Amino acid sequence: MKNSASAAAAQPDNDFLSTRFKWTIESFSKLKSEKHYSDVFSVGGYRWRVLIFPNGNNVDHLSVYLDVADSAFLPYGWSRYAKFSIAVIDQLDSNFNVREDTEHEFNKGEEDWGFTSFLPLSELHAPGRGYLLNDACLVEADVAVHRVLDWRHDSKRESSLCTTIKVARDEDLNQIGKDFYFDLVDFDKVRSFLVQKKMPFRNFKEEVAKAFGISAQCQRFWLWAKRQNNTYRPHRPLTHEEEMQAVEQLQEVSKNANFAELNLFLEVELGQDLRPMPPPRKSKGDILLFFKLYDPLEEEFRYVGRLLVKRSGKPLDILTKLVKMAGFSSGEEIELYEEIRFEPHVMCEHLDKRTTFCTSLLEDGDIVLFQKSPLVGNTEKCRYPDVTSFLEYVHNRQMCSTKSPTQLEVGDGNRLTNTRSSIPLPTDLSTSTVATSVLTSLSLPFLKENSLSAAHVKIVDEIFRKHGDVVEKVQVPDPAFKTFFLERLSSAVELFRSQTATSITAEVLEKLKNMIQSLALQGVKVDWLESFYEKDLKDQLVEVKDQLDEVEKEIGNQTGDSAKILDPL
Predict the structure, then answer these.
(1) For the range 342-345, what are the long-range contacts, defined as Cβ-Cβ under 8 Å and sequence gap of 24 or more?
(2) Confidence at residue 230, expressed as pLDDT on a 0 to 100 scale
(3) Of 243-252, 267-276, 412-421, 505-514, which gets the smallest average pLDDT?
(4) Whose CA is closest to 435, among 403, 466, 479?
(5) Of 128, 308, 366, 536, which one's alpha carbon is 20 to 30 angstroms from that of 229?
(6) Which residues touch 487 (CB under 8 Å, ≥6 apart)?
(7) 501 in Cβ contact with 565 (< 8 Å)
(8) Which of 336, 343, 388, 387 shows the shortest CA–CA distance to 357?
(9) Cross-sheet strand order for the sheet of 262-267
(10) Cα 460 from chain centroid (whole Å)
(11) CA angle, corner 169, sides to 165 and 173, nearest 5?
């Protein structure tokens, strides 16, 4: 096995240093391990290596990645940004070299990045090609590195370079009937990716392949659009030409939706073995419809699936499939409705099963609601016997309970009241999902939902009254971070209060120290908490230890006082 690295041509951007690394993998067909690493090489003082999966990373392609060689020994919160390309050389004809390029910010949790579906194994091993000449494979990696990012100083710069892509999948549509009833998905609860704006979208598909285990050729992405009736639906699939563009160009296309991020729906088809397969070809004569099922006896609403149908087709043509989706007995009679809008009032229209989808004016992204056909004389057993009456009930219930407070008012127990003076907290204290990739880059645990609990709102109330806006100077690309950091800060205070000077352990102390340091690193004002940890807490622990040494029986008397001592507020 041979390795070599050489400095590439000087880059016009002085912030970057680049190197070309060449790796000759001999006896390729005899490699036994699932994955294989190159020797380590350095670029700008950073240590890298190339990682390959000779038989594919759960795909029938050669998979190749760039890996941070010393990730296990790097300090807390590390990150490094790199532009790189990887190539497999055809040693008989350079015209057939395969090269892919991308850029990525490496961090804890994403120590390697690259291309899951790099080169089909059938082409790699093809006798007429020179990818495995004399059973040797030649891999080249061009790597250009930038200085390590400091989020406290470079967050604004990174914000201008990055954007968020939110990807909704069928799994996310299962929220319907639990958290909401209208439209299809709450984008605050789907997977988010923080990516470079100039990243080619085809490279983003590789990131999705790695995150979801769905190869790029099995992915079809749809743009969302906000309609004139204020509903938000999948609008059209991306074209092949659009997938070759940069992410920022697609963001321009989707700006009519009035969203800062790029929202997408990922369509994935499963074969009989329940494994992803390439999606069926979609022509202008096809439309993608989504289906929800209503059960009037249980008063339940849920998403059951989607179908690609012919515009010229009729509901009669798909009744058997819908009955199967719902788990009904074969031959069950059902009624269908189109969900049109829900503001300012609910509008659902009954669909004639014998009328074509085109005549009914159905289009891509439309939602069809269905239920068992109500039995004559049996509707009195149900409060809301049909789809329309149930949705009107839900709409009226939401209208009665909806409030738009300009500030949080904190009271006792689990209910928010105005019995105490209200405080102006950040307006982003709402349910939202923080991008997994960003959280991982900060080496912080992932929270599916970071809305504050009533207990934590009370703690935040105390913090703001005593120490002011502690997240005022936080500068990160996603505003939901303020909520996340307040959750972490509240958890630290809560952890302090759950301990006593006689029971606190070294493990808990270390955990508290890490929590405080991570918050300080991101610009959260925690000097008051650091002071308590480093001085007041230490003094109290020493005092209690001295008392216990003097009289062992005083443990019981000191425990109650110690519980009060461990309160940083």
Answers:
(1) 342/182, 342/183, 342/231, 342/391, 342/395, 343/229, 343/230, 345/392, 345/395
(2) 83
(3) 412-421
(4) 479
(5) 308
(6) 447, 450, 452, 456
(7) yes
(8) 336
(9) 191-196, 162-168, 262-267, 220-226, 232-237
(10) 26
(11) 120
Distance in Å from the first CA to the final CA of the chain: 61
- pLDDT value, residue 458: 77
DSSP notation for 298-320 = TTEEEEEEEEEEETT--GGGGHH
Spatial distance between the Cα atoms of 203 and 219, rounded to a whole number of angstroms: 13
Compute the distance between CA of residue 106 and CA of residue 49 in angstroms, rounded to an integer.
Answer: 13
Q: What is the 3-state secondary structure (H, E, C) of 228-291?
A: CCCCEEEEEECCHHHHCCEHHHHHHHHHHHCCCCEEEEEECEECCCCCEECCCCCCCCEEEEEE
Closest CA to 168 of 292, 263, 242: 263
Strand partners, 221: 266
Query: Which among 66, 68, 50, 40 has a CA at the least distance from the CA of 148?
Result: 68
Long-range contact pairs involving 396-405 (C-beta distance under 8 Å, separation at least 24): none
Tell me the pLDDT of the chain averaged across its residues.
78
pTM (2 d.p.): 0.49
Q: How far apart are CA 166 and CA 437, in angstroms?
A: 11
Mean pLDDT of 537-563: 52
- Alpha-carbon distances, residue 182 vs 171, 223, 233, 342, 351 (angstroms): 16, 19, 11, 7, 18
Distance CA 442, CA 75 (A): 12
Residue with tokens 């809560």: 494
The secondary element (H helix, E strand) that includes residue 391 is helix 387-401
Q: Are 439 and 490 in contact (CB under 8 A)?
A: no
Residues shown for the chain: 569
Percentage of the chain beyond pLDDT 70 is 73
Tell me how far the alpha carbon of residue 550 is from its chain's centroid.
55
Burial of 377 (0-12, 13-18, 19+ CB in 10 A): exposed
Cα separation, 235 vs 225, in Å, equals 6
Query: Please, is 520 exposed, middle or buried when counting C-beta atoms within 10 Å of its C-beta (0-12, 13-18, 19+)?
Result: middle
